[in-house]
Design goal:
- Helix 2 packs parallel to helix 3 and helix 3 runs parallel beside helix 4.
- The protein contains 6 helices and 6 strands, in the order βααβαβαβαββα.
- The chain has one domain: Decaprenyl diphosphate synthase-like (Undecaprenyl pyrophosphate synthetase, 3-Layer(aba) Sandwich).
- Helix 4 links the parallel strand 3 and strand 4.
- 34% of the residues are buried.
- With 260 residues, it is an alpha/beta fold.
- It has a 6-stranded parallel beta sheet, with helices on both faces.
Amino acid sequence: MKSSLRSLDHPTHVAIIMDGNGRWAQRRGLPRVAGHKAGAATVRQIVRAAPDLGIDVLTLFAFSCDNWQRPRREVDALMRLLERYLQQELPELRSSKVELEVIGRRDRLEPRLLKAVETAEAATAGGNRLRLRLAVDYSARYEIARRLEANATARRRVASPDVDVLIRTSGEQRLSDFLLWESAYAELFFTATLWPDFSASELRSIVGDFAGRDRRFGRIVETPSSSLGERKDQTTAAWLPPIGTDHAVLPTAATHSRTR
């Protein structure tokens, strides 16, 4: 992937739990679906801003496996909104060289939505400015179990990229079964901003904060005065290979938490 900023001080993979659409609408006396529509507009803004911030991969949590428990009317509205988003945004995604990938289960999606997903993925394949991943009917626990089973039957899958920064909007401070494996060393940012109010400027602020963090990945930085006796905090472990690969690599991000 190509971007205008290429530095280890900038995250290349940002994941966002887009939370707060319903509360945004309720505070304005609007139906919850109005919040989801406003949230879709925020998605457009963030997708446009991400490449210029040095972000190569952007993963957005659109619909979890647990979200099927919501009222049927809201679920249907969300699915129609997602189908409409894929259709309406496709021309801009293509012209902006954004490659779209939908992760999560597909066996429970309506045929119309599934067709829209497959059409958008095929039409944007090869985009090299940003890789946009939408998590739909997604559960990290389910995905881990599925991929482990796939490895056991010798089917190879492409490894998911490690998350550098994970953001959750609306003030909640939990991961909600999102990218648990890939976020093992992610920097965590929690903001009270509701998703429809989240902006490119707040994303830029988080990217700037990330640049100031000391990310050691279990290691220490040696100085000329360092001795073996001073390296007691060196972490050693038998690292497990990423899901979908058959070789071991070191994780690529460090974990902290921050309340915004």
